[in-house]
């Protein structure tokens, strides 16, 4: 069985990566896909986010990286995935995630949404927290893959030099 793990991944965190590693063991194939959301202005351009994910998942067999816009269920079908995978960190994720899951179910009754509980030590980690810490010069190395830490340092060094 194949699964799609969609998200903004702006940027990829160790929480995302933990979910990817665990689900790669559960499925024959896993597509990690960056959603190009017109409603969100990303910090990292699409191509850079794809590169971050490619680098961080290079050691994993059966993991592909892609991007899409439009309906997740359509892209999932295109990937040959029967399952859409999402992570649940805390109750605060639950209501929103349930709403998306029900919407996707009504759009495609064949598609299942599967939630994995995130690793306890990553449950307070989010892309936005990582960006806040990096912006103010904090150490993000325990939070993100090495390549992403380099990208964050570059992004915010440049930003501070140019005001
Ligand atoms: P989106 O904008 O689609 O929520 P994100 O990149 O923030 O995109 O999250 C993508 C998926 O990864 C979501 O299912 C989210 O719950 C999950 N996720 C976010 N942070 C973590 C984390 N620290 N550990 C595991 N999963 C996470």
Please tell me about this protein's structure.
- This protein is α/β, with parallel strands linked by helices and 163 residues long.
- The chain has one domain: HUPs (Rossmann fold, 3-Layer(aba) Sandwich).
- It is built from 6 helices and 5 strands, in the order E-H-E-H-E-H-E-H-E-H-H.
- It has helices spanning 14-26, 46-56, 72-79, 91-107, 127-135, 146-161; strands spanning 2-7, 29-35, 63-68, 83-88, 112-117.
- It has a 5-stranded parallel sheet with strand order 3-2-1-4-5, with helices on both faces.
- The chain is globular.
- The model has no long low-confidence stretch (mean pLDDT 94).
- The structure holds adenosine-5'-diphosphate.
- Adenosine-5'-diphosphate binds at residues 7-9, 13, 15-16, 19, 86-87, 89, 93, 118, 122, 125-127.
- The site of adenosine-5'-diphosphate has 16 residues, from helix 1 and strand 4.
Shape: globular
Helix content: 40-55%
Question: How many angstroms separate the termini?
Answer: 49 Å
CATH topology: Rossmann fold
Strand runs, count: 5
Number of domains: 1
Let me know the largest β-sheet.
5 strands, parallel
- Name of the CATH homologous superfamily: HUPs
> SSE order in H/E notation?
EHEHEHEHEHH
Task: Report the CATH C-level class.
Answer: Alpha Beta
Mean pLDDT, rounded to whole units?
94
User: What hetero molecules are in the model?
Assistant: adenosine-5'-diphosphate
Q: What oligomeric assembly is this protein in? A: single chain
Structural class: alpha/beta
CATH architecture label: 3-Layer(aba) Sandwich
Strand content: 15-25%
Low-confidence stretches: none
The DSSP helix count reads: 6
Measured on Cα atoms, how large is the radius of gyration? 16 Å
- Order of strands across the main sheet: 3-2-1-4-5
